[in-house]
Each structure stands twice: as C-alpha cells, then as structure tokens.
Amino acid sequence: MVRALTEVILPVILVAGLGAFLARKFTIDQTSTNKIQLFGLVPALAFSSIMKTQLPMGQVVGLGVAYLATSLAIGLIAWVAARGVPAKSRGPVIACAVVGNNGNFGLPIALLALGQAGLDQAVVIFLFSIVLMWTVGPVLLGSHGGPRAALLAIVRLPALWAMAAALVLKATNLTLPVGVNAAVELVAQACIPMVLLSLGVQLGSSKKIHVTRPVLLATALRVVVLPLLAWGVGRLVGLSGLPLQSLVLACAMPTAVNIAMIALEYSEDADTVASEVALSTLLSIGTLAIVVTNLPVFA
C-alpha cells in the first residue's frame, strides 16, 4: 500500500497539485487547454501508442468489448439505484457512474503502475472512453440531438482519426518521415504531464463540494462498485493477466472532469455533477491505492 501511494499515486498528486496551485494563482483558460489536449496531445499519443504497440487486434477488440460491457452494466445498476433521487439528478448520477477519467488520471497511473505495456492498453481503453463520454454523456445529461448528433460527435474526435491513420500505416508497413515522426513523439511525450496539469487546473477552479444523496450515490458506484464489476465482467468475456488488470485499473478511476463541462451545457443539475467529480477524485486516491496494491490478485 505504501509503495502504491508513494510510487504511483504521489507523482500524480504532485503534478495535479501544481496545476491546482497555478489555477488559484493565475487565470487559466481551461477551454484552450482542453482544445490543446483533445486536438493535439491525445491524437499524437494515440498515434504513437498504436505505432509502437505489439497488442494484437483481438486483444484491442477484447478490451473494448469488456470496457463497453462494464459501462453498460454500471449504467443499468445506476439507473436502478437512482430511481430514489430527484428526477433532474437521475441522468447526472448515471453519467457520473459511467464516464471515467481515463485520460487525466488513467494514462499516468497506468504508466506508473503497469509500465509501457500497461500504458498501451490504457490508451486503447481511453479511446473507447472518449467515444462514450462525447456520445452517451450529452444524452444522459439532457441533450436531445439524436443519433445524427452522436455520430457527428464520434466523427469529430481527432484521436480516432489518428488511431485509424496509425493502423493503416502498420497494415501497409509504412512509416512517417523521420522528422515528422520525431515531432509526433515530442507532442506525445507532452501529453501525460499536460493532462495532469490540466486536471489540477480544473479541480483548482472548482467550487465547494455539495455532499448530497445523488453525489454520494454516484461516487460510491464509481469508485467502489465499478472496479469489482469490471473484474467480474472481464472474467466473463475471457480477459486475464495484464488486459484484465488494465480494465480493472481503468474502471477504478474517478469520474471524468470533462463530464462537468458537458453538464454545464446540457444538464439542469450541473452542481451535482461538479460536486461528484471533485468528491470521486479525492476519494479515488485511497481506492486507487488499494486497487494498485492488489493488481496481482486481479490477474
């Protein structure tokens, strides 16, 4: 436990803490930093990871199926559990339980806990998670754009195009010119520290946490129930070893910070989402330490 806290969790806290400090001291445009990540850093990391990874396509599909199946299962559990909360909070409870922070938190912790091989798997899960966030998230939080809007949201995700380009290059045994590849690698290497700083900025700019029944319910589902559920679902779909550990670790992450931004756009109860994001992030420090310590058990 001490090793997990000092070698995996502490570096994340320190870098995110620097971001929170900067957010308190200076005015930082979060919209711009998010665009830098979404349109620049994450696509470069996705491209680089796909080009370098030795993951067979079957394992990529298996991870994706397991992650989506786990998300569906926790969504159904949250839907049943949220029937006792006010109607305007039901969608936010489900969204907070389903959509995890597999970018800001997930990527650096996977790297520190499971090494480069774990990071490769975490990137795959992250790509599935951002599709989930930008399609299911708005629907659960009140958007009524329909299937067309959901499809457009997927098409607009640059990380998916970067991933597709990398798959084409690998399939044809082609590579980028040396200078271009070096530039991509530089941007990719900047991704993890930048997303951590951004996480700190977002949390440092957050307001007071309102501890209400919907907030506590969503947090319990996200940081306590979901990791155990992921282990069960992963076993059912045939995962074992590092892929299963990666799935459990990914599902132990707190709620995605960006879901609070989506809630501001669509939800009538954005305060519940913002409070749940902050609370789940704080509590996940302890639960993640437990999960990281027991990763050998999940193999």
Automatic annotation (TrEMBL):
UniProt keyword terms in alphabetical order: Cell membrane, Membrane, Transmembrane, Transmembrane helix, Transport
Name of one Pfam family that matches: Mem_trans
One GO term of the biological process aspect: transmembrane transport
Membrane topology classification: Multi-pass membrane protein
CC annotations in GO: plasma membrane
Transmembrane segments: 6-24, 61-81, 93-115, 121-142, 149-169, 181-203, 215-234, 246-266, 278-298
Main location: membrane
Subcellular location: Cell membrane
Keyword Transmembrane helix in record: yes
InterPro entries registered for this protein in UniProt: Mem_transp_PIN-like, Na+/solute_symporter_sf
Record PANTHER family: AUXIN EFFLUX CARRIER FAMILY PROTEIN (PTHR36838), SLR1864 PROTEIN (PTHR36838:SF1)
Protein name according to UniProt: AEC family transporter
